[in-house]
């Protein structure tokens, strides 16, 4: 009985210690970043329904190393968001996290210049209007586990209250951006500073 108790205590310690060392803390669904399968990742991706949905939007930026200045190569950026009805649409045959995240999602991998770009459209807030409209972002650096960063929110959204602003941790920099208009697209520029305000970053 003592041996069993000791084993359970040690197991609990190992699990607890493992969670404590998780980069960025707990992350439900972060492993979705790994679901790109055999897709050859490049610095540019086009999300489903971009061509047929308005307003079209370009999510772009530079991923910087922890010094905030040097471009970071080989970083995978995973993005997903709702459709114009505020839901994560599925087709019914999804597997893995696509059953939750829907099919409006994509992956990029930065080159030497650290740049990434997603061609997509502006998402809508949930029908419940419980949160501002947003684009979820998860990243994975070479030789590190994946972790989530602050979602992209859009300045001017009436659901971005002072409480919402204060709740943000500025993980890898602020995700609250001001959309710009260029060549018929909404431009959402979101630079990413690796490790900035990320718990257990090492």
Automatic annotation (TrEMBL):
Pfam families: Dioxygenase_C (PF00775). This is Protocatechuate 3,4-dioxygenase beta subunit. Residues 55-167 form the Intradiol ring-cleavage dioxygenases domain. Keywords: Dioxygenase, Oxidoreductase, Signal. Belongs to the intradiol ring-cleavage dioxygenase family. It comes from Roseivirga pacifica. Residues 1-20 form the signal peptide. Gene3D superfamilies: Aromatic compound dioxygenase. GO terms for molecular function: ferric iron binding; oxidoreductase activity, acting on single donors with incorporation of molecular oxygen, incorporation of two atoms of oxygen.
């Amino acid at each position: 009985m003592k041996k069993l108790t000791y084993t359970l205590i040690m197991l609990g310690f190992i699990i607890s210690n493992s969670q404590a060392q998780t980069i960025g803390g707990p992350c439900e669904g972060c492993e979705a970043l790994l679901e790109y399968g055999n897709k050859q990742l490049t610095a540019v991706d086009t999300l489903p329904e971009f061509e047929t949905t308005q307003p079209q939007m370009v999510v772009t930026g530079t991923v910087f190393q922890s010094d905030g200045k040097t471009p970071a190569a080989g970083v995978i950026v995973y993005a997903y968001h709702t459709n114009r009805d505020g839901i994560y649409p599925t087709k019914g045959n999804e597997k893995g996290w696509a059953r939750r995240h829907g099919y409006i999602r994509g992956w990029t991998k930065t080159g030497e210049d650290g740049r990434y770009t997603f061609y997509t459209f502006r998402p809508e807030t949930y029908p419940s209007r419980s949160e501002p409209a947003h684009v979820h972002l998860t990243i994975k650096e070479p030789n590190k586990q994946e972790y989530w960063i602050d979602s992209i929110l859009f300045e001017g959204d009436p659901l971005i209250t002072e409480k919402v602003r204060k709740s943000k941790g500025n993980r890898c920099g602020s995700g609250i951006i001001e959309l710009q208009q260029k060549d018929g697209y909404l431009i959402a520029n979101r630079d990413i500073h690796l490790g900035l305000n990320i718990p257990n970053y090492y």
